[in-house]
Amino acid sequence: MKLMAIWHPLIEIKKSVLLWQILYHGIWTNFKASKLCGISPWCKRCYRSIEDVPHIFFTYPNSKRLWQTVRMKIRLQKHLSWQQSLLGEVIGCCATLGNAIRGEVL
Description:
Strand content: under 5%
Order of helices and strands: HHHHHHH
Radius of gyration: 15 Å
Structural class: mainly alpha
């Protein structure tokens, strides 16, 4: 992963922190809590998957719809991994995704 993409001076600190937490599994999830507290790891919103970082931000039904809309808006045909989506590491869409991360309109 390219850390400079996360900690770029044009990206707000709160967005950089969130991206870092997502990429390095620093977000508290049911999966993480299940290891420490013994609770069920399943997503309490959809009950279809274990609630981990990729599920919350990419495979949860509402998240999936959001990313499909983003791909449609930037006219991206290729499916991206969730890490690529966050960092804009695909040739031809780096600038567009970077702008989106910085909060500019898609």
